[in-house]
Write a structure and sequence with these properties.
Elements: E1 8-10, E2 19-26, H1 34-50, E3 55-57, H2 75-90, E4 93-105, E5 108-118, E6 120-126, E7 149-153, E8 156-160, H3 169-177, E9 182-186, H4 195-210, E10 214-217, E11 220-223, E12 226-229, E13 233-235, E14 241-244, E15 251-258, E16 264-266, H5 276-294, E17 299-303, H6 308-321, E18 326-330, H7 338-351, E19 354-357, H8 361-370, H9 372-375, H10 382-403, E20 405-409, H11 413-418, E21 431-432, H12 439-452, H13 458-462, H14 482-494, H15 499-504, H16 509-521, H17 523-527
Parallel strand pairs: 1-7, 2-3, 3-4, 8-9, 9-10, 17-18, 17-20, 18-19, 20-21
Antiparallel strand pairs: 2-15, 4-5, 5-6, 7-8, 10-13, 11-12, 13-14, 15-16
Helix pairs in contact: 1-2, 3-4, 5-6, 5-12, 6-7, 6-12, 8-10, 14-16
Active site: 60 (proton acceptor), 127 (for glutaminase activity), 163 (nucleophile)
Enzyme class: ligase
Keywords: ATP-binding, Ligase, NAD, Nucleotide-binding
């Protein structure tokens, strides 16, 4: 495969025109599945050809998917990618393609956008600004490019920038200075709540600052913890977003661009974004669907307790996978209230799923019988509560093994933060749907889902939350009220505020110290928890990486 980088302008001998039809392919790629991704690209290319497009733009690292992480360290990855590029060259298409992929050169590994036309590579642009914060660690793998890229194609000077390059003013200004008429930007921009408005502000600013139209192309889909929400968009030279593609769904469209007038005409209407709870709900649904399907699971199952967390998790799973692919198990014990069993059954019936009831009483008694000599002379404590949870976890994992379904755990961000969960018990499973969703947001999501169809009983939403592992147990026996807890957690976990700052916000110092202490001493639990779908700017896992062995939190337990 021929590979090269052109600095400055690339000029080609094509029939000159002031108009260009640019196709935008917003696809759902699978990391590492180059063959699958190649077929998606070829399918989009056919669509672009049928629409008489001049050029079609794909998202960042579209051939290998994003983020490929340590797959980039495998030498055989590049052989497969080179073969895929050769196959695209052999198509000899009259539509130019902007393809994202990694490339290994003598001077290092680069994140590139390659422009292919007919059986030639016109240019390859190396991404210059490599994000290395939050969920990104591109500097672990890539070297920074140093050359700007503008190429002439059919009479239009086209600039290229990749993702992070657009978030800072200088690269766009340099492309404009090289004479670009329009800027194409492949992206892999992961979702968090509010990201759409932030993106739009930044992309609009780049376009407005340089009086340069921008075609912003993002991928969609779930990849482990990350969600990519699509929302590919086009901005005119005044910085106005004149077109946007689907959110949380694959999409294909084209625009007609006239460089003389600056006019941009989309092939279809502008799509509005989701907002509020609907936006978060759709992100969770996409995350569950792709995690299950891309990992080869036949469906999902979960423990349905009659509480709000499992009710919301169940509704997300059914919306993601279909009622025929989800089943729930109620696993009562002597402390389980009759209303919990009734409510769980009502939820299952409302959603039309398979529902089973398996008591954990015999299993618990077997454990206690076998441990009776070791436990002799000791007081009942959390140990017995944890045995209940671990009986349930073992049951769910047995059903998962037997029927090939993904176990969805139901712990929310508030509980996971303070360790209000049991290792190898309610934490046992493959994906925690609510891991980045605070308890107060869980209630809001329940209310939202019931506006679509009433699947969560009102009593589940209004009754005091309880783990039901002890008589008359309530969450607030051990934790501050959730509205207070969530506010403290947001300040400490997501904003990195210290004790004095949080107390100054009006919260009781004893509560603040206890919550911070609980967060810090439970890192070992979170490190062993299943992955969860990221919806905030600071999720546990890829975003927030704290040591397990640390004395930092001890100073906060008391003054």
């Amino acid at each position: 495969m021929k590979k090269f980088v052109i600095a400055g302008k690339y000029r080609a001998n094509y029939q000159l025109s002031s108009a260009m039809r640019i196709a935008i392919a917003q696809n759902n790629y699978t990391v590492g599945d180059i063959r699958h991704n190649l077929e998606l690209i070829k399918s989009s290319l056919k669509q672009a050809e049928s629409d008489n497009a001049d050029i079609v733009v794909f998202s960042e690292l579209s051939l290998c998917g994003y983020p490929p992480e340590d797959l980039l360290l495998r030498p055989d990855l590049y052989t497969i990618i080179d073969d895929a590029i050769d196959e695209l060259l052999s198509l000899n298409s009259n539509v130019a393609m902007v393809i994202g992929h990694p490339i290994k050169e003598p001077e290092g590994l680069f994140n590139v956008a390659t422009v292919i036309h007919q059986n030639k590579i016109l240019v390859q642009y190396r991404k210059q600004l490599l994000p290395n914060y939050s969920v990104f660690d591109e500097k672990r793998y890539f070297e920074s490019g140093s050359e700007d890229c503008v190429f002439e194609f059919k009479g239009v000077n086209v600039g290229l920038l990749v993702c992070e390059d657009l978030w800072y003013p200088e690269p766009t200004a340099r492309v404009k200075a090289l004479g670009a008429d329009i800027l194409l930007s492949p992206n892999a921009s992961p979702y968090c709540y509010g990201k759409g408005a932030l993106r739009s502000a930044e992309m609009g600013a780049r376009a407005r600052e340089n009086e340069l139209p921008i075609v912003y192309v993002n991928q969609i889909g779930g990849q482990d913890e990350l969600i990519f929400d699509g929302c590919s968009a086009v901005y005119n030279e005044e910085g106005q977003r004149v077109f946007q593609m689907a959110e949380m769904a694959e999409d294909f469209a084209f625009i007609d661009f006239d460089k003389t007038s600056g006019a941009i005409k989309p092939s279809k209407g502008y799509l509005n974004q989701f907002h509020g709870e609907e936006e978060i709900w759709q992100a969770l649904v996409l995350g569950v669907r792709d995690y299950a399907h891309k990992n080869g699971f036949k469906g999902a199952l979960l423990g349905l307790s009659g509480g709000i967390d499992s009710a919301v998790t169940l509704a997300v799973a059914v919306d993601a996978l279909g009622k025929e692919n989800v089943n729930a198990v109620m696993m009562p014990f002597r402390y389980t209230a009759s209303m919990s069993i009734e409510d769980a059954e009502a939820e299952a019936k409302a959603l039309g799923i398979e529902f089973d009831v398996i008591s954990i009483e015999p299993m618990y008694e077997a454990f206690m019988s076998q441990l009776s000599s070791q436990f002799a002379g000791t007081e009942t404590d959390l140990t017995e509560q944890n045995i209940q949870a671990r009986c349930r976890g073992t049951l769910l994992m047995a059903l998962s093994n037997k029927f090939g379904r993904l176990v969805l755990t139901t712990g929310n961000k508030s509980e996971v933060a303070v360790g209000y969960c049991t290792l190898y018990g309610d934490m046992a499973g493959g994906l925690d749907v609510l891991k980045d969703v605070s308890k107060t947001m869980v209630y809001r999501l329940a209310r939202y889902r019931n506006t679509i169809s009433p699947v969560i009983p009102e009593r589940v939403i209004t009754r005091p939350p309880s783990a039901e592992l002890a008589p008359d147990q309530k969450d607030e026996d051990n934790l501050p009220p959730y509205d207070i807890l969530d506010a403290i957690l947001e300040a400490y976990v997501e904003q990195d505020k210290g004790i004095d700052d949080i107390v100054a916000m009006g919260y009781d110092e004893a509560d603040v110290r206890r919550v911070i202490w609980l967060v810090d001493i439970n890192e070992h639990k979170r490190r062993q928890a299943p992955p969860g779908i990221r919806i905030t700017q600071r999720a546990f896992g890829r975003d927030r990486r704290y040591p397990i062995t640390s004395g930092f939190g001890r100073q906060f337990k008391s003054k």
